[in-house]
Design a protein that fits this description.
single chain, Rossmann fold, 2 domains, six-stranded mixed sheet, elongated
Length: 343
């Protein structure tokens, strides 16, 4: 079986090729390591193409292993989406062959290392490699499983998934109402029909007026709870001070004006589907409480002292790019952990 090493050219590698440092750099050190017998090395470069080509010429003089150079024009070396799209397209082409993948984490930016980890654990099984001055080249231990369904997959990945599919829910009138002709929309509808078969929460992203609620109702109609309630909520229209009461309900006397006990939207949708439209408009503390509902399957009405078990399929929608917004929160953690793998 062919062993393919994939890695980004980093600044330390370029300095090593220029003779500015005594060490060979993470890439060269990995390629020349006796631990692995690579059949091919695939180098991604987001520097000026000529700089990358000069480095490849230098590295080729250090090894007999064939080297493939791929130039990637990125708007930023920390743009997770662009990094993912650049490498996944190449990995798709190699996955059609019988090959063993190796991803090198120690060269390139922390964002590049983070993308390698996600791909290795969720989409393209691979051995992760790290390099350090103290311990040399070794396999990186990352004992966690990840799910990466939120990552926008390439066309080739979708085609493989469709071939692996054994069955789909029957066509419903709601899915037939989604009129489309493009290949992109065909894949979106296919994913929606696949999601309808499961009871997992679903997030639909798209600009206002693009039919997010139409997709939500179609998913509900193709699910096992199609005969149960479908409760739609416009989260952006709920006053911030009443969000918890509207979603989880309240007991009589829980606050001023609470003259009656009220069921929240979660309780009203119990057994069916709750559609939270524009969920990104909710206050952050309310989003945290919704996360607990998804994890524990229970709610605590305002003024109550004990939780209530519920069984609700949650479909949420937003016109925001939540992946980009969440990157602002997690980027500090990613940069810190990825820094530990660098020289």
């Amino acid at each position: 079986m062919r062993k393919i090493l994939f890695c980004w050219i980093g600044r330390t590698d370029l300095n090593a090729a220029a003779g500015e440092i005594e060490t060979p750099g993470p890439v060269a050190k990995t390629v020349k390591s006796n631990i692995f017998d690579f059949s091919e090395v695939v180098l991604f470069c987001n520097y000026v193409a000529e700089i990358g080509e000069d480095y490849v010429s230098w590295l080729q003089g250090q090894t007999n292993t064939p080297i493939r150079f791929i130039y990637c024009s990125l708007s930023s070396p920390t743009n997770f989406e662009e990094i993912y799209l650049a490498v996944s397209k190449v990995l798709d082409s190699y996955s059609k062959e019988e090959s063993e993948f190796f991803f090198q984490l120690s060269s390139g930016t922390p964002a590049m290392a983070a993308v390698w980890i996600v791909l290795a654990k969720a989409m393209f099984p691979a051995t992760l490699i790290e390099v350090s001055l103290q311990q040399g080249v070794k396999v990186a231990s990352f004992p966690f499983d990840l799910a990466a369904d939120f990552i926008p997959p390439s066309k080739e990945t979708d085609e493989r998934l469709e071939k692996l599919s054994l069955s789909l829910p029957p066509e419903t009138s709601e899915f037939e109402d989604i009129i489309h002709r493009s290949e992109v929309m065909r894949r979106v509808v296919f994913k929606a029909r696949k999601a309808a078969m499961r009871s997992v929460p679903v997030l639909i992203e798209g600009q206002s007026g693009t039919g997010k609620e139409l997709f939500a109702r179609a998913i509900h109609s193709g699910s096992s709870v199609r005969d149960k309630k479908f409760v739609a909520v416009n989260c952006g229209a709920i006053p911030s001070e009443l969000v918890e009461s509207h979603l989880f309900g309240h007991k009589k006397g829980a606050f001023t004006g609470a003259n009656l006990t009220r069921l929240g939207y979660f309780a009203k949708a119990n057994g069916g589907t709750l559609f939270l439209d524009e969920i990104g408009e909710l206050p952050l503390d309310a989003q945290v409480k919704i996360l607990r509902v998804l994890q524990e399957g229970e709610i605590v009405p305002v003024g109550a002292t004990s939780p209530i078990k519920i069984n609700v399929r949650v479909i949420a929608a937003t016109n925001r790019n939540l992946i980009v917004e969440s990157q602002k929160v997690v980027s500090g953690w990613i940069c810190f952990t990825a820094w530990l793998w660098r020289y």
